Amino acid sequence: MATPEANEEKPGENSILWVARPMATAARQFTKSLFRPSTIVYPYERLEDPKFRDRLEVASGKPFGVGEVWDNYRGVHALNIATCISCNLCAFSCPDICIDMVTVAGGDPKHPKKCPQIDYGKCSYCGFCSDACPEGCLTMTTRYELSTPKRSEMVYSPEKLYQVFRSKLPMNPIRLARPANEDAILLDPPLCIGCNACARDCPTNCITMLDVPKPEAKPGEKLPRRIWKEPVVNDSDCVRCGTCISVCPKECLFWGTRK
Amino acid sequence: MSEMWINMGPQHPMTHGLWNLRVKIDGEMILDVDPEMGYLHRGIEKISEDRHYNEVITLMDRCCYVAGLAWEHLYIIASEEALHLEAPERALYLRVLCEEFQRLASHLMWYAAFVQDIGLMSPFLYGMRDRDLILDLLQSYTGARMTYEYMRVGGVRSDLPPGFTDRTRKVLDWLNARFVEYDQLCLGSDIFHKRCDGLGILKANDCVAHGVTGPMLRSAGVPRDLRRDRPYAVYDQLEFDIAHADTADVTGRYLVRMEEMRQSLRILRQVVDWLDRHPGPVMADQLPRWLGAPYAPVGNEGYLLKRHYPKGLGFSAVEEPHGEAQAYVVNEGGEHPYRVKFRSPVFANISAARQYLIGYRVADIPPIMGSVDVCVGEVDR
Questions:
Q1: Separation between Cα atoms, residue B120 and residue B125, nearest integer Å
Q2: Which CATH architecture describes the domain B42-284+308-348+366-380?
Q3: Alpha-carbon distance B329 to B342, whole Å?
């Protein structure tokens, strides 16, 4: 095994070097640290200040290349309400179930627009919600100071998250969720009653109801009571949120591979 | 003198976490020990059964607070095998990068805690200071300092930021110089040798009999390392040596861990060079959508029954900083893993405490248990 230099020239038994050498090492570090303290006095100085950008620089006292440590940081979310399509994917993907979809102003009164409200008392800052967001409207910023005397203030409404978005903090690079080719919304035609629920609630309006021919009733056979329309999904616009599946009253929509 | 049982823990400076070491003493001599675990049990295996494959990753970070990415790697390998997915090669290299960074961070954390256990304060500060540089690097591409949530089934979350590799090389050079200093402080000191030589001896056959792995096994002269003996990810394409010592005592474990850190630097240099030369995708192309997001929305679970995915079993064994961790994932075709089982190396290492503590003195317990490198988060899961 490769032995370190300190081990190679071992001092003899009862040599003063056994004590003097480590003390000299510590003293060397001590004198160095007198001139360049690496402690950051937190509330007055901050780690994200440019002068602490590279702590290697602080620790060694030598100018090294500056790297951006903070841009990827996962802190408080920023929500762009204008581009949110209310697809629920952030709430579905949250492992802590801390995202609620709440109504925001400015939607159609019949089908109100819903945007995520995040309870930071539960949030673990994993970033699955911003990864799942198909529109890139929910991202994470570098803000990390959330302390508050009231527990209720930990719940950030969509409006408050929009304020974070407006504050132009550095944001985590946006990674748009990519729909996979493999999964698509499929229809079980005999079950469909043509009720339009899926097309009505689709956040991207990628479902259109097309007419299907009404079959001729054979003598003695009773045709089902239904609207003779069926949903057709535009796969390229679909964000695979599953809203249509959850609203379907007849459970005739399901995930599958398009042939 | 009469015999008595004393409790070291569950909240005790020696324990590094919530666990209890009951010690039967006669004066200063240790006659018997009885480790008690379970104070930190969170039921991670059971919670995993109710989560998506990707969401289990958040739990893996909580398994071990000093080596979260190594546990993510462990789980990801097993679940990819169970789901019949393959990650692109660049993602494999990024995972190895993560794991070696974690090994460095974990060993530095161990160094800081261990030297404090034997009464040295300055090396503690040096270890923590240098670990922060690695945490900065990890934060710059994973986005967090402790709970990384970086790996995904089928790849990793994001690619490296610009300038990362140059920065890494500088940190590696800086660390390489620091290790000399660490050895001067510890191995060059008579106090260290008087405190640690010949303590906590656990021979190779006892290690094997009790399932003790990792640096403890290697310090007993067995050069077993899963990175070489059962290569996963891209370890078979990297050059490194297995650190081992023959003394089987506390000093031996110190030597093994310090040498492992040097080997980690060596691996990291190769990985960083490779990453510079080979840009590419970090996520697999064909990922089932359900890996990313949707639950069965409440009130309509019937459609789950209409989906049929290939079933599968996944097993993985990873050389975690503390030893050999293993995971077993059963995929029964649903959106959640049917069953997840983890093997924690530290659990076995602590359980063998009777073998390496009896016969020593009470004051020897902190250095011996410190050399085991206990992480209670993964013991209790």
A1: 10
A2: Orthogonal Bundle (1.10)
A3: 9
Pick the CATH number of A77-166 from 3.30.70.3270, 3.40.50.1970, 3.40.47.10, 3.30.430.20: 3.30.70.3270
Running DSSP on this structure, what letter comes out for residue B283?
B
Domain extents for chain A? 77-166, 184-213+227-256
Mark yes or no for CB contact A71/B188 under 8 Å. no
**B242 C-beta neighbours (distance < 10 Å), count:** 18
Asked if A182 lies within 8 A of B289 by C-beta distance, the reply is yes
Q: How far apart are CA B342 and CA B377, in angstroms?
A: 12
pTM of the model: 0.84
For A64-93, the pLDDT digits (tens) are 433 455 667 888 888 888 888 888 778 877
CB contact under 8 A, A67 and B185: no
The two structure tokens encoding residue B18 = 């919530």
The H-or-E segment that residue A255 falls in is strand A253-256
pLDDT in tens, A194-240: 888 888 888 888 888 888 888 787 887 777 778 888 888 887 778 77
CA distance B265 to chain A (A): 14
Phi, psi dihedral angles at B191 (to 5 degrees): -60, -45
* Interface touch A6/B187, C-beta < 8 Å: yes
Of A19, A25, A240, the CB nearest to B181: A25
**Kind and range of the H or E element at B226?**
helix B226-229
Q: Which residue of B has its CA nearest to A67?
A: B163
Work out the mean pLDDT of chain A and round it to a whole number. Answer: 77
Burial environment of residue A120 by CB neighbours within 10 A (0 to 12, 13 to 18, 19 or more):
middle
Predicted interface score ipTM higher than 0.85: no
pLDDT at B297 over 70: no
The amino acid that residue B13 corresponds to is: P
Q: Tell me the mean pLDDT in the region B203-223.
A: 89
- The structure tokens listed for B158 are 């994001």
Q: What is the pLDDT of residue A189?
A: 77
Q: What are the pLDDT digits (tens) for B132-178?
A: 888 888 888 888 888 888 888 888 888 888 778 888 888 888 888 88
Query: What distance, in Å, lies between the first and last C-alpha atoms of chain A?
Result: 60
- Dist. CA A89–CA A96, nearest whole Å: 14
Instruction: Please report which helix (H) or strand (E) contains residue B4, including its range.
Output: strand B3-8
